[in-house]
Amino acid sequence: MPLTDAHKSDLLLVVVTLLAGLSWMFSKEAVMLMPPLLFMALRFLMAGGILLIAAYRYLPRMTPELIWRSARVGLVFGSAMSCWIMGLFFATSVGEGAFLTSLGVVIVPVIARVAFKEAQPASTWFAIPVAGGGLALLSLKNGFHPEIGQLFFVAAAFIFALFFTLNTRAANTRTITNRAGISIRKERVPALPLTAITLLTVGLVTSSLSALLEPWEATFTHFSTAMAGWIIASAIIGTAGRFFVQTYAQSLSAHSHGVVILVLEPVWVALFAAVWLDETMSPTQLGGCGLIFTALLINRWGPLSRALRGWLRKVTTKSRAAQ
Q1: 53-89: b (≥16 Cβ within 10 Å) or e
Q2: Which of 97, 166, 242, 257 is deepest in the core (most CB within 10 A)?
Q3: d(C-alpha 122, C-alpha 262), whole Å
Q4: Domains in the chain: how many in total?
Q5: pLDDT tens, 189-244?
Q6: How many C-beta atoms surround the C-beta of residue 100 within 10 A?
C-alpha cells in the first residue's frame, strides 16, 4: 500500500529528529571554541546560501509577499535560535536542555489555537500540566532557582512553538477571511526557497546580535580547523539538510500538531550526550525528562492510538490467515 502524504511527513520528521540530535553535538563542540552567536551566524548564513543556490529556479516566482512571509518565519526562528544557543552555551546538561526545548512541541497546538483559531485535540490540554510538572522537577534541584541555561531553553521553546506554527502555515496553501468577510487564498511558499530565506534571515539576526554583544577579533585571529569542521558539519547536516527536510515534511501535512513527532529529538540528544559527552542525569532530572516525554506522547495520543490499532488489525489478520 503506497504511503500517504501524512505518513511520508511523519517518516521524514523522524529523520529530522536524528539530524537534530547530531546538530546538538556539533553545536556544543563549536560553542566551546568560539562565541555562540557568531557560530550561529556563520552556520546559518552558510546553510542558507547553499539552499539559496539550490533554489535558484524558484526565485523568479517569489513575489514580495512570499518573500516577506518567509522572512517573517526567519525572524521568529532567529529569535528562538539565539535563545537556544545561549542556553546550550550555559548548559550543564545537554540532554536536560533538549527535553526543555522539546516543550515547544507541546506549546505548538496552544499557539495555533490562541493565535490562529485552529481546533486542537483534547489530548493537548491533558499534556500541558504533565509537561509543567516535568519542567518543575528539572528546576527544583536548585530550590526554585533555575539555571540561566534552563531559562534560555524555556524561552526558546515558546518561540519555537510560534515558529513551527508559522512555518506550517507558510508551507501550505490556505484560505483566510479578512475583516470585510472576503475570502483570500494564500499560496504556499515552496519548501526550498522558504527554507533558504528563513535560514538566511536567522543568519542576519544572529550576526547582528553577535556584532553588538560578542568580540570577533580573537576568533578570526585564532581560527582553527576544528572550528571550520564544526561550522561546516552544523551548516550542511544540522541546518541545511535538517530544516529543508522539516519544511518539506510540514508541507505534506496541513496539521500543525503533526510536528509532535519531534518527540524523538530529545531522546536522540540524551543518547548522543551520554555517549559523546559522557553526561549523566540525577534521578530528579530523569523524572522531569520522563514527565516531559510523557506529555509529548499524550499530546500525540490520537495518531499514536490509530497507528497502534492499525498495526494490531494487521497482526490479527495475518494470524488468522496463517491458521
Answers
A1: eebeebeeebeeebeebbbebbbbbbbbbbbbbbbbb
A2: 97
A3: 19
A4: 1
A5: 888 899 899 999 999 999 999 999 999 988 888 889 999 999 999 999 998 888 88
A6: 31
**C-alpha to C-alpha distance for 294 and 264, rounded to whole angstroms:** 12
Q: Round to the nearest angstrom and report the end-to-end CA distance of the chain.
A: 24
The domain in which residue 144 lies consists of: 5-322
Residue 5 burial (CB count, 10 A): 12
Nearest to 301 by CA among 127, 166, 153: 127
For the whole model, what pTM was predicted?
A: 0.78
pLDDT of residue 41: 96
Cell numbers standing for residue 57: 529556479
- Sole residue written with cell 543556490: 53
Question: Cα–Cα distance between 295 and 135 in angstroms, integer?
Answer: 11
Residue 220 identity (one-letter amino acid): F
CA distance 36 to 215: 11
Contact between 306 and 7 under an 8 Å Cβ cutoff? The reply is: no
Report DSSP state, residue 237: I
* pLDDT tens digits, 22-56: 999 999 999 999 999 999 999 999 999 999 998 88
Q: Could you write out the DSSP letters of every residue in 186-203?
A: EPPPPHHHHHHHHHHHHH
Nearest-CA neighbor of 107 among 80, 125, 88? 125
C-alpha cell of residue 2: 503506497
What percentage of the chain exceeds 70 in pLDDT? Answer: 82
